[in-house]
Please model this.
Amino acid sequence: MDRDLSATFEGIFHRSPIVQVRAPGRVNLLGEHVDYNQGVVLPVAIDRAVKLAASPTADARVTLNALDLGVQVAFRLSEVVKKRDLDGNPLPAWALYPAGVAWSLQDTGLSLSGMQAAYTSDVPIGSGLSSSAAVEVAFAATWQALSGWELDKITLARLCQRAENEYVGVSSGLMDQFASACGVEGHVLCFDTRSLEWEPLPLPPSTAIVIADSGIRRTLAGSAYNDRRAACEQAVDLLRKYLPGIQSLRDVSSVELAAYSTYLPEVIQRRAEHVVKEIHRVDQAMIALRRGDARMFGGFMYASHKSLRELYEVSLPELDCLVEIARSLPGVYGARLTGAGFGGCTVNLVDASQAEVIIQGLHNAYQRRTRRDATIYLCHASDGASAVKF
Ligand code: GLA
Model:
């Protein structure tokens, strides 16, 4: 239990919380922009998380206090679909995530308790580490703890994804909510977004994960992410003429894509080529993981970055710069942008014994080249969401 969070809650609501929840962000090691194409992804839940304290109320109202923003808003569970607060004003953007979870859970037939909740997060916002999925999973886990029903983790993650897709309006895949719900300490999660089967595999021995935050922020609510997804759907629609029966780009091999890509518009060709080859890279990277071969795995990370830069076009010069610097440093096995792109972070798989020197090296060279300060830190693969009731 986090005593400070409980004390803060008491200061605001003049009662004690009866539940505390922690839900982590994630960093994706490989398999980028493949979750909405039914591919396999390799994320890790990180040791940065949303922490939430809550108590139920009998009046079916939800009062949210976002401690980091210093703001509070309240809405009625029965009117959540309207996206309005108690005074009829539109809910602020940050409140759409918890409200979206309430909408999604209720829409599936679950009955929810009203609640007072206060939460804080050290997952940086807009940095590609799934700050929004962490908020969604934290609220779903809180309602689960307060409302007397229990969902398996994948169902809970899917309901959070639905909140983001249909209530917030971002067509994200399932990777982020999955990782926040299912994380396993010290492990990479191999998650098949088609079968929904998953398996934790240990990180290669003596390695560490270093996250380098370029300081450039992006929002997924912008159209670029949804555009990429639409491009993949268009590719499948067009390829179906030649490959009847395909459901997604997961069903298309590199050889088939090469044979038919002249029938696709040029931009769509590039988007599809990234996805098809990234799905293949993940297959091979899983062999590397099973062998504990960090160097082989790292090679796929560099290849993934190149593809995200040249074919999927979601990188930025600052992210390319961080990857280039990483490549020049001894002890780095692989580096790439992580998450949706358009800003945010790179993820680096490094030799654990050289991690501190690598962090310094990345920081200094990035500052020299861009005149920007990157926030660079060691990250530990952590467990997924948990709730403690008292
Ligand atoms: C965002 C989305 C995920 C995934 C990644 C890109 O994080 O929320 O579902 O598509 O981008 O791999």
The longest strand covers residues 43-57. The pocket of alpha-D-galactopyranose is lined by residues 28, 32-33, 35-36, 130, 172-173, 175-176, 339-340 (CB under 6 Å).
